[in-house]
Design a protein that fits this description.
The complex is a heterodimer. By secondary structure, chain A is mainly alpha-helical. In chain A, about 65% of the residues lie in helices and about 5% in strands. Chain A has a two-stranded antiparallel sheet with strand order 1-2. In chain A, a hairpin with a 7-residue loop joins strand 1 (about 50) and strand 2. In chain A, helix 2 (about 30-45) packs across helix 3 and helix 7 (about 150-160) packs across helix 8 (about 165-185). The longest helix of chain A is centred in the last third of the chain and has 22 residues, at about 125-145. The radius of gyration of chain A is 19 Å and the shape is globular. Chain B is an all-alpha fold. Chain B is built from seven helices and two strands, in the order H-H-H-H-H-H-E-E-H. A two-stranded parallel ribbon of chain B has the order 1-2. The model of chain B has no long low-confidence stretch (mean pLDDT about 95). Classes of the chains: A mainly alpha, B mainly alpha.
Chain lengths: ~190, ~190
């Protein structure tokens, strides 16, 4: 598609982003911030979800076991959302928007509802596509949280550092993704 | 300063994801059904090059090894990866590219992101019950890498060879794989 980088140039661009991030700050990761976003919303409706607690490593604790883990690391980020990792993910939306508005690949109005491969297989009823996208999002983030990271954190940043967890995650993800994609969308 | 870097690097990441075509679920689905490998070639080459430069930077003392963040290996990484793979295949998005899809104005990406917020929320609720199961049992001591990083918090699985050599060897294998992989398969016409 026009506006899309070929694999060689695209790979260089991708490599430089991951490299500069770890050089200046830390490896790129995305999926944790879905938890932080949820926690911020939840905290609006709760009086005791996140508390200041001088006894923990980070100075925060939570009544939720997940937010409380690693010395209240997530609880701290929920209490202080203006932190690097959280702002970073909003940058992704902005960056993609800027690319689309400049010379990046252009999606048609139909593509924005459902990709062509979906429309060929399942027709143009967009609600089915939206429902499947929702279920897909649910599985992706549930799985990513169980795995402790996603495609960015485990696959890219992980294998960049030669982390064992990155290879294990990638094997697990492709072991289900490839057969299911072929089953659902066909080979041709 | 951190916030400024977050905006710059996040924007750059989103821009590149969009330019390589990763914000388009069509490309991801076609990669997963083994029809169009350009995105896979891009990602594998990206990992290869960033890894080689990272370990060269560590060896030359340009990159601070305390900036590294190696995630723990445990059974949940494989199982969670498998669950993620199911959603990845049906929707054609992962967390980062779903957000890039939002920036691209894709409506299905909105449903994906909202579904993701629900999935993460349910995980928060069930975590207490999973905490003491086999899922959280470590593999190979937890935070392990193949190549020695020079950061004492992480275990290196190959200790007899300098980290930079191991990393460059893996990087070369990845490059050859990316290079030899066809862009499109035969059944594409």
């Amino acid at each position: 598609m026009s506006g899309q980088l070929n694999w060689f140039r695209g790979g260089i661009a991708l490599a430089l982003v991951f490299l500069v991030a770890v050089w200046l700050v830390k490896p790129i990761g995305v999926s944790t911030q879905f938890v932080i976003f949820d926690g911020i919303i939840w905290n609006l409706f709760s009086d005791d979800l996140v508390q200041v607690n001088p006894k923990t490593k980070t100075g925060y604790s939570s009544t939720n076991a997940y937010l409380n883990k690693s010395g209240g690391k997530y609880a701290k980020n929920i209490a202080n959302p203006l932190n690097y990792s959280y702002i970073f993910v909003f940058g992704i939306i902005l960056g993609s928007f800027l690319s689309a508005k400049t010379k990046g690949p252009k999606a048609t109005e139909k593509d924005r509802q459902a990709p062509e491969v979906w429309r060929q297989r399942f027709g143009s009823c967009i609600y089915k596509r939206y429902l499947v996208s929702f279920i897909g999002g649910f599985l992706v983030l549930f799985g990513a949280r169980l795995a402790g990271g996603c495609t960015s954190g485990h696959m890219m940043s992980g294998m960049m550092q030669t982390s064992l967890s990155g290879y294990l995650f990638t094997l697990g993800a492709f072991a289900t993704a490839i057969p299911l994609a072929i089953l659902m969308y066909g080979r041709k | 300063m951190d916030i400024l870097l977050a905006i710059i690097l996040g924007t750059l990441f989103g821009f590149v994801l969009h330019r390589i075509g990763a914000a388009n679920p069509q490309n991801i689905i076609n990669m997963l059904r083994l029809k169009d490998f350009h995105l896979m070639k891009t990602i594998i080459w990206g990992i290869s090059l960033s890894s080689a430069l990272l370990f060269l930077g560590l060896t030359l003392g340009i990159i601070d090894p305390t900036h590294l963040s190696v995630k723990s290996s445990y059974w949940g990484v494989i199982i969670g990866g498998g669950i993620l793979g199911l959603g990845f295949a049906i929707a054609g998005y992962c967390p980062g590219t779903g957000l890039a899809g939002l920036g691209d104005g894709r409506k299905d990406a909105r449903y994906f992101v909202v579904g993701g917020l629900f999935g993460a929320f349910v995980y928060m609720l069930v975590f207490a019950g999973l905490k003491n199961t086999f899922l959280m049992q470590k593999i190979a001591g937890g935070k392990a890498t193949l190549a020695a990083t020079g950061n004492p918090s992480f275990i290196s699985l190959i200790e007899s060879v300098p980290g930079v050599i191991v990393a460059l060897a893996i990087s070369l294998i990845f490059f050859i794989f990316a290079w030899k992989l066809p862009n499109k398969t035969d059944n594409d016409s």
